[in-house]
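Hi there,

I know you've been waiting on this one. I reran it after we fixed the sequence typo, so this is the corrected version. Both the input and the resulting structure follow.
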Amino acid sequence: MNKIIILIFFLINTLWANIGTNGDLKVLKELGLDPSFISDSELVSIYNEYSSKSKISYFRNILKKSSLNAQIVRAEIENENLHDAVFFIPMIESSFVNQTRGKNSPAGLWQIIPDTAKHLKLRNDEFIDERLDLIKSTDAASLYLRRYYKKFDNKWYLSILAYNSGEGRVIEAITRASIDRYLELNPNRNSGLFRSYQRSLDDYQRTKRGVSSLYGIYGELQGMEVPFDFEYLVQNNKQKQYLPESTVTYLKRIIVFSMLSNRDLFDDIKKSPYKLEKVKLPKGVSLKSVASAIAFSSSELEKMNKHIRKQALPKDSKANFYIPKSKLEIYNKKIATIKPINEKKEIQTKKETQTKKSVDKKVVDSKKSDKKKVLIYKVKKGDSFESIAKVHNISVKKLKSDNKKKSNLINIGDSIEIYK
């Protein structure tokens, strides 16, 4: 009986442990990779790690905690007709957590850097950070990936590499690796043309300028039937540093996630209790006012609209604003009744309040000053706290307290403060 239990436990824990199914090969083919890549040792190692019961549970928990964000990414990817593997980029980039560490740091589900945001026309200033806009940032990332998919001969794996390390780094890597492999196979054909190609690559590596010339070289190599072999790049990458090792591992992790997804391991994740609806928010209306009007949690509404960095939209903003779809009807009824924040009035009110507080404080201080008139008494021969207190009609305890004295010792010439 114990042997049967152990066998069942073993089968459960190794249920997804075998890599190389027809579905796995299909993932490689759809991404643009050769089926032989299935035997890559690091890919197999990542698969064995990620397919364990504990890891599957961990990944499922990530998706459960960020179900709304995950659903938005899934829907937008399907709308844009991107490969399913793209869904797992935010899993690696941000664990589907929509956050930033600052204006100049990577931000959002897709961890978009400021320069890329500018290139993708995402607003990023003190009022709005569209890298945190759940839908707009996903659309921008989709546009980026689609653009490089087309540039790199309709190969998704190269587009994913470009997303991680940049377009220039990838076109340089595949061009250099293609030339190196060709010359290894044809050592007698290292003509002046290939040497000029290598000089152009060296110039780019030094200056990071001239990406278009690299595309020109890559196109000429294809015309000369000099193919690019990704497995060659991977096998020689540690020695020749075509790409950062982290970038190659990044791609392999995406591949493994896609393979595990094909086994329906992430399909039954609990769905978010609501879907988003984009609405037009009048300028100056605060998020808290909207939340109150539609009877919805203000903290949840702020989570949906993290790209709005202030409590209300600025007057020059055309930023998206999201509410739960179930609240659309009540929003349309109530929005006209919500008054915008009157900034000038608010500033004036704050000034008046501050002025009043300042005046009140002066009055209080004045009253305190009037109440506490101080008399300085110089100690003479034969004086004591008791005699001084008796003459001025105050208690010994108060006299000692006002002068911060603990003992009864005083000296001739000491100054004693007497408050009445």
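Quick highlight: Residues 43 and 252 are 6 Å apart (CA to CA).

Best,
R. S.
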